Amino acid sequence: MTAKEVINAILMQENITGSQLAKDMGLSRPQAVYDILNGKVLKVSARMANLIHTSKPMYNIDWLLTGEGNMLNDDIPATSIRAEKPNEQIDSLSVINRLIEINAQKNVEIRELRQAYEHLARCFEKLANGETITPADKKAISI
């Protein structure tokens, strides 16, 4: 694998951007990551590999440097690799649940607005036909 493929594999595995990887590595700017992704830098330096490995120890340092061998370390238990994921999934689930609640509220509001619109359309039709609007119609309009 090329350095670009190594970094892309990490980004896909982690489901993050180059900027987020740089931030996780403690870099103040993502330029070093994007230089690899854009082909300006052809190899992952020892410093870059160490920064990645320090922030994400599940990645095999030899793989980071050469692109050969196993991507993930065999000696790190799977539970420690996934330690952060359950919290992230819980956070994602709470966000999804909140969005579902908001969507349901908006659907209720849309339904109420649609009913008010239909009522107004009926009132305008009555007025256009020379009919009078009843007190009940007026009350419904003020909704």
From TrEMBL:
UniProt xrefs under InterPro entries: Lambda_DNA-bd_dom_sf
Molecular-function annotations in GO: DNA binding
Protein name per the record: XRE family transcriptional regulator
Organism: Segatella copri
